[in-house]
């Protein structure tokens, strides 16, 4: 799906269309006040205060009709520059615009754009005339806190999209419909993978048996890969003293994203947002020689972060997550080799999941952001140079992103576009010189001196929650055989004559370590086959008199109406081949 912000003309077109939306709203709701109307990757939105009015679905059609009427009128869009005093006078009736203006410096150029009877504060640029805004669609509306602050008033946010041609607009709308069908929240409900409940709270999904089955398979899969590569897995508590995070630096840089402190018996405890400090202490638990390194500590670790309620999204963005986390304690001369092994593991996992479209992002600090990043120029320069050199030596293609680093160091993020167009970080590998210093970590070198190790933070699957969301949308819930919660559904054609053989086949399949259901409902065969398809079971076995007489198995693969009849031995070989190829 196209990213509007990445296309200059489409960005201008959508910015102009946001003003067209605001003008139409002003015609229909004369008392409306306007906050901001930016261009976003998916088009544009405008945050609007409609007073006591609350938008309904049918209102979007009314507003869009008014937008088309204004567009046909063809008024030119005219830019004007104002002094701060003039701007305050121009927008004196709109407190939201006044707030924007008052926060501008006296030397800043203030501009506004007028189209007929409507003027809006804006930097621009815009198209020449509203007549150019022909092919647009209002998509949805939602509530949004003023300035994103939950203590402020809820404004009404209207989303839209604008294109140069009708064909482009229709193609985009078709892609949006496809995205709705792939939405992991919709599929997760239909296939009973996970649920949410207001009594539990937003961003706190409950994994149902089907989803828990897939997650368990994922956990076993990555744990086995890591064991083979020399990782040692641990379990650490989900909370810790606030002192731990003050030592690590997370308290200064991350406490606003953590859940509130729990105070009891003069102790201050907090749910952990990440596992790094715990793993630092495990390393520090005993003396290490240079010969011991690298030491690879892994954990499938529950973490907790206070995401805003408006930001949580199914499994993709949650408040309670489980990370495929690990910390590698290495000598400086081992950085390249260990980093290369992490990248190799990432690519090996992507091959198993048939992930072919991804990009590597070198995430660096913003030197001007003194709040987000630990202030140590020498440490940062060393870490960024080291990481850049490693990537170049590995001939790894990457692009740089200022301001995306962790507070303690630069990182390599693997960016993936989901099936519904979201740009997400799936895997990450970070270089850290800071935490070894703050926790006074050492190893004894070949000269008997205590020296600092370097820490590589890495997550291959990332969080199981986000990875599951990605898989659901990528497969539309039709998981490959090795991952599916129910791999095989056995259906006897007639319960009276074929149930015994069906039970025998189910027992044998379970003995071969497959996850098998046996459908003994007293329903028509066509109904039971259709239900198996709706559940997206990879293999449906259908057993009638012919199969009973010949001792064979007939099956259908999900997505196919062809029924294949084979011997039990051939069926077992087929299943093993599908599992081995991760199909």
Provide an overview of this structure.
Helix 1 packs across helix 2 and helix 6 packs across helix 14. The strands form seven sheets. The protein has an eight-stranded mixed β-sheet with strand order 11-15-16-23-20-19-17-18, with helices on both faces. Strands 1, 2, 3, 7 and 8 form a five-stranded antiparallel β-sheet that branches. The protein has a five-stranded mixed β-sheet with strand order 25-24-26-27-28, sandwiched between helices. It is globular. A hairpin with an 8-residue loop joins strand 7 and strand 8. The chain is 37% helix and 26% strand. With 583 residues, the protein is of the alpha+beta class.
Provide a short characterization of the protein structure.
By secondary structure, the chain is an alpha+beta fold. It has 18 helices and 28 strands.
SSE blueprint and pairings:
Elements lengths: L7 H21 L4 E2 L4 E2 L2 E7 L7 H17 L4 E5 L1 H7 L4 H8 L7 E6 L2 E4 L13 E11 L8 E10 L2 H17 L1 H7 L3 E2 L10 E2 L1 H20 L3 E2 L5 E3 H7 L1 H5 L7 E3 L2 E5 L4 H9 L10 E10 L15 E11 L4 H18 L6 E6 L12 H17 L5 E4 L8 E7 L5 E10 L1 H5 L4 E2 L5 E2 L2 E10 H12 L12 E5 L2 H17 L4 E3 L6 H10 L4 E5 L1 H6 L1 E6 L6 E4 H13 L3
Parallel strand pairs: 11-15, 17-18, 24-25, 24-26
Antiparallel strand pairs: 1-3, 2-3, 3-8, 4-5, 5-6, 7-8, 9-10, 12-14, 13-14, 15-16, 16-23, 17-19, 19-20, 20-23, 21-22, 26-27, 27-28
Helix pairs in contact: 1-2, 6-14
Keywords:
583 residues, alpha+beta, eight-stranded mixed beta sheet, 26% strand
Class per helix and strand makeup: alpha+beta
Alpha carbon gap, first and last residue: 26 Å
Task: Please give the oligomerization state of what you see.
Answer: single chain
What composes the largest sheet?
8 strands, mixed
Helix content: 25-40%
Number of continuous helical runs: 18
Average the pLDDT over all residues and give the rounded result.
92
Strand content: 25-35%
Describe the strand arrangement of the main beta sheet, using strand numbers.
11-15-16-23-20-19-17-18
Rg computed from alpha carbons, rounded to a whole number of angstroms: 29 Å
Q: What is the molecular shape? A: globular
């Amino acid at each position: 799906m196209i990213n509007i912000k990445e296309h200059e003309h489409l960005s201008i077109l959508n910015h102009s269309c946001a003003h067209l939306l605001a003008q139409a709203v002003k015609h229909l709701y004369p008392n409306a006040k306007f906050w901001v109307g930016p261009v976003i990757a998916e088009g544009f939105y405008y945050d609007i205060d409609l007073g006591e009015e609350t938008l309904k679905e049918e209102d979007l059609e009314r507003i869009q009709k008014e937008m088309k009427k204004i567009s046909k009128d063809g008024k030119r869009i005219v830019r004007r520059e104002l002094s701060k005093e003039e701007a305050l006078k121009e927008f004196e009736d709109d407190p939201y615009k006044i707030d924007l203006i008052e926060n501008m410096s006296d030397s800043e150029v203030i501009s506004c754009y007028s189209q007929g009877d409507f003027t809006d504060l804006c930097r621009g640029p815009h198209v020449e005339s509203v007549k150019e805004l022909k092919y647009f669609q209002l998509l949805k509306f939602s509530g949004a806190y003023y300035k994103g602050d939950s203590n402020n008033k809820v404004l009404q946010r209207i989303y839209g999209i604008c294109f140069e041609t009708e064909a482009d607009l229709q193609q985009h709308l078709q892609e949006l419909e496809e995205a709705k069908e792939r939405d992991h929240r919709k599929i997760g409900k239909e296939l009973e993978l996970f649920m949410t409940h207001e009594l539990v709270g937003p961003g706190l999904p409950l994994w149902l048996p089907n989803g828990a089955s897939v997650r368990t398979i994922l956990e076993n899969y990555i744990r086995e890969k890591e064991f083979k590569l020399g990782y040692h897995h641990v379990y650490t508590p989900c909370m810790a003293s606030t002192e731990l995070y003050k030592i690590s630096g997370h308290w200064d840089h991350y406490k606003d994203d953590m859940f509130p402190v729990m105070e009891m018996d003069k102790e201050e405890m907090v749910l952990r947002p990440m596992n790094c400090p715990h793993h630092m202490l495990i390393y520090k638990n005993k003396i290490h020689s240079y010969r011991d390194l690298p030491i690879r500590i892994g954990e499938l670790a529950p973490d907790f972060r206070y995401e805003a309620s408006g930001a949580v999204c199914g499994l993709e963005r949650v408040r309670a997550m489980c990370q495929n986390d690990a910390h590698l304690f290495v000598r400086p001369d081992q950085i390249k080799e260990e980093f290369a092994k992490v990248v190799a593991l990432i690519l090996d996992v992507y091959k198993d999941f048939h992930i072919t479209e991804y990009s590597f992002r070198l995430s660096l600090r913003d030197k001007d952001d003194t709040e987000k990043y630990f202030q140590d120029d020498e440490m940062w320069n060393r870490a960024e140079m080291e990481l850049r050199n490693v990537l170049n030596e590995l001939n790894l293609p990457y692009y740089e992103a200022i301001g995306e680093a962790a507070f303690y160091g630069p990182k390599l993020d693997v960016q993936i576009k989901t099936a519904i167009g979201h740009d997400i970080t799936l895997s990450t590998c970070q270089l850290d010189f800071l935490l070894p210093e703050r926790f006074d970590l050492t190893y004894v070198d070949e000269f008997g001196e205590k020296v600092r190790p370097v820490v590589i933070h890495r997550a291959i699957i990332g969080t199981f929650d986000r990875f599951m969301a990605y898989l659901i949308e990528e497969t539309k819930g039709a998981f490959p055989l090795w991952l599916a919660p129910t791999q095989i559904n056995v259906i006897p054609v007639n319960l009276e004559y074929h149930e015994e053989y069906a039970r025998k086949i189910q027992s044998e399949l379970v003995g071969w370590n497959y996850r098998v259901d046996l459908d003994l409902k007293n329903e028509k065969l066509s109904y039971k086959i259709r239900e198996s398809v709706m559940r997206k079971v990879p293999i449906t076995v259908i057993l009638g008199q012919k199969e009973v007489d010949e001792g064979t198995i007939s099956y259908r693969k999900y997505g196919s109406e062809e029924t294949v009849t084979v011997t039990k031995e051939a069926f077992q070989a087929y299943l093993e081949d599908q599992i081995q190829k991760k199909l």
